[in-house]
C-alpha cells in the first residue's frame, strides 16, 4: 500500500524492451535505496511494481504487457523522470490517502493554466469513471494523492500547489499527454453498493 505522497522523481536511465515486457532501470539516490530489497513494492508513476534487481545506483522493474497497455509507463523514454514512492511501513505517517498502486485508467491532459498565481490541470477521462470522482474528493494521479477541483461529465480539474510541482513530475506533462489514475477505493465501494441497492429496490417495486 501507498500514501500518495511522492518521495522523489527519479530518472529512467534505460528501458529494455521485449515482446510483452519492458524492464525499467531507474536511478535511485542512496537514501531512497536504503533498506530496499529484491521483491519489494515501489510505486512508479503510481503503478505498483516489484523490484527485480538492485545494482549500484539503479533499481530494476519489470512491466508486463497488461500494465503497459493500461498505464502511461508504455510511453516512457530514457531521460524522463517518474514519481517514486516506497511502500507504506508500519508506523509511517499517512499524509495523503491509501492507494493500492493498481491503476484504473488513464486521463488525458486537456488544458494547462499556468500563471504566477496558480497551476491548474484539466483532465479528460472516460465518463464511467466520473461516478467515483467528486468535488473535494481524492484521486491518485501519477501516484500523487490530490484533491479534486471542479468536475464535469467527462473530466475534472486539479489545482496544484508549488510544493506538489516541486516534488513531482506533474508540471512536465503537456496537453494531450496521459496520466495514470487510481480512484479512491472507498468511494468506489460506496458508489457501487448504493447503485446495487437502488437497482434491487427499483426492480422489486417494478414487479
Automatic annotation (TrEMBL):
Gene of this entry: ribC
Lumazine-binding repeats: 1-97, 98-194
Keyword Repeat: yes
Protein name, as recorded: Riboflavin synthase
Highest taxon in the source lineage: Bacteria
UniProt keyword terms in alphabetical order: Repeat
Enzyme Commission number: 2.5.1.9
Lumazine-binding domain sequence ranges: 1-97, 98-194
Entries under NCBIfam families matching the protein: PRK09289.1, PRK13020.1, ribE
PANTHER family to which the protein is assigned, alphabetical: RIBOFLAVIN SYNTHASE, RIBOFLAVIN SYNTHASE ALPHA CHAIN
InterPro entries: ATP_synth_asu-like_sf, Lumazine-bd, Lumazine-bd_dom, Riboflavin_synthase-like_b-brl
